[in-house]
Design brief:
- The chain is 51% helix and 10% strand.
- It is mainly alpha-helical.
- Helix 7 links the parallel strand 9 and strand 10.
- Bound molecules: glutamic acid.
- The site of glutamic acid has 7 residues, from loops.
Length: 489
């Protein structure tokens, strides 16, 4: 059997990270078994579905590199097929026309609710209370239609819905790939509606027909759908279709264990892109969020596609930990190819002002040595601030302090040495510093701070020799000269 998985988002909003994780698990499971990963846009809820949301979901999936193996199936395009299956079920006797109107059903529920409340009243005999509760229980129980065994319509053109004839009795069992064996008694399953009075299919029917038609072998989805599985399996059985394997993923909670909300980082996937996370960083984090393999923390995509299995999925809800996401992302920033990282970094650099060609070239040259200076691209772009500072540099408080008249005098002397360098490189600059210190008896602690202050204005920067190398001779000497001039004023 060739594995086929699918991700089936409803385009009613952005792709949040829970959805992204579901997509990722489906993707990895398909790759692991050399199968196919499919995408279905469940857009049958016309009121809540929007083309913008569909586009946003596709954009997020493409950013994450979770490309489906076939073009996406739009569920709304399959409605005729869904209705055809419902009719086939009626013909087989596994579904039936039900003439109970929506109003009657509502009245039944209201009566059940009223009896349930009445049973709480004071002064009832135990027998009356028990009778009320029993009635309420029946009225509020999953609906079994009086037409489930057939019968004449109340009028020749009476409106009807098509309902599934739910299993008569016994336990319904799902062997879930994550949750293990889950049982529900047949009495908990209703004769669910397959086609509404206007002939349109319901979501529950559409999902099953589409999964069957797409050849889906493994349904991996959020555990908020576990209960639906018990209503969906009877539809497969009613059509004599193979029932796929199911695996229901525990929810993602906030770091405090509460339901995930915006406050915890329940942001749309593409917001993580804007915050400067790399797709592979977010994916590697999402993989570990709810799945494990020994105590390994970071997996490349290659490793993940070799190792991913349902057995490694945790049963307990996972907790979103943004700090850990940062650590994982930092790892992937360091591991990223320099040219690619540079291209990804450009928009983040441009967000804080134009990037001239000289600065662009300096950033590119410094990038390999600067990669460990940010857990996100936003932070990494910020780490280049010293390089982008415009002459004469604005000085932070500590930089001003380092540029005392004594400090500037040392700078002046040292800049004379720098000017003499025939070769401008980190190595030759570093050597010049050592020679200068030996000759003058000054320590690095005496020349370093004024030099750093003049070159960076107090902004964070790595070692001074490479910093001067990246800035280049003119910019370096210019920055030093600015401070000498300033002191002389
Ligand atoms: N469309 C459903 C959702 O977005 C998923 C249905 C499924 O995976 O079966 O929650």
């Amino acid at each position: 059997m060739r594995v086929v998985t699918r991700f089936a988002p409803s385009p009613t909003g952005m792709l949040h990270i829970g959805g992204a994780r579901t997509a990722l698990f489906n993707y990895l499971f398909a790759k692991r078994y050399a199968g196919r990963f499919l995408l279905r846009i469940e857009d049958t809820d016309h009121e809540r579905s929007t083309p913008e949301a569909t586009a946003a979901i596709l954009d997020a999936m493409s950013w994450l590199g979770l490309e489906p193996d076939e073009s996406p199936v739009m569920q709304s395009a399959q409605v005729d097929r869904h209705a055809e299956v419902a009719r086939a079920m009626v013909a087989r006797g596994t579904a039936f026309r039900c003439y109970v109107s929506a109003e009657d059903l509502q009245a039944r529920r209201d009566l059940g609710e009223a009896k349930r409340l009445a049973a709480r009243e004071d002064g009832l005999s135990e027998a009356d209370r028990a009778a009320l509760l029993e009635d309420a229980g029946k009225l509020l129980a999953p609906f079994r239609s009086p037409w489930r065994n057939g019968g004449e319509p109340p009028a020749p053109d009476a409106p009807f819905v098509v309902r599934l004839r739910a299993p008569d009795g016994g336990d319904q069992i799902v062997e879930d790939g994550v949750q293990g064996i889950v049982k529900v008694h047949a009495s908990e399953i209703d004769d669910l509606v397959l086609l509404r009075t206007d002939g349109t299919p319901t979501y529950m029917l559409a999902v099953v027909v589409d999964d069957h038609d797409m050849g889906v072998t493994h349904v991996i989805r959020g555990d908020d759908h576990l209960r639906n599985t018990f209503r969906q399996i009877p539809i497969y059985r009613a059509m004599d279709w193979d029932v796929p394997e199911f695996a229901h993923l525990p929810m993602i909670h906030g770091n405090d264990g509460a339901k995930l909300s915006k406050r915890h980082g329940a942001l749309s996937t593409t917001v993580y892109r804007d915050l400067g996370y790399l797709p592979e960083g977010l994916k590697a984090y999402l993989l570990r969020l709810g799945w494990s393999h020994g105590d390994q923390e970071i997996f490349t995509e290659d490793e993940a596609t070799k190792l991913f299995d349902l057995g490694g999925i945790n049963k307990a809800p996972a907790r979103l930990d943004l700090e850990k996401l940062g650590t994982v992302n930092a790892h992937f920033i360091r591991a990223a190819d320099d040219d690619r990282l540079f291209a990804l970094l450009i928009p983040f650099l441009e967000a804080s002002g134009d990037l001239d060609d000289a600065t662009r070239a300096r950033v590119r040259r410094a990038l390999p040595a600067m990669k460990d200076r940010g857990v996100t691209l936003v932070e990494l772009a910020g780490a280049f601030a010293f390089m982008r500072a415009v002459r004469p540099l604005e000085l932070a408080k500590n930089a001003k302090k380092a540029l005392s008249s004594e400090g500037v005098a040392r700078l002046q002397a040292f800049s004379g040495e720098l000017r003499k360098l025939s070769e401008w490189s980190a190595a030759s600059i570093s050597e010049a510093i050592t020679t200068y210190c030996t000759a003058t008896g000054l320590s690095m602690g005496q020349i370093g701070p004024p030099l750093r202050a003049a070159l960076t204005g107090g902004l964070p920067a790595p070692d001074l020799a490479p910093v001067m190398d990246w800035l280049g001779r003119d910019e370096t000497l210019g920055r030093i000269e600015d401070q000498i001039q300033k002191c002389a004023e």
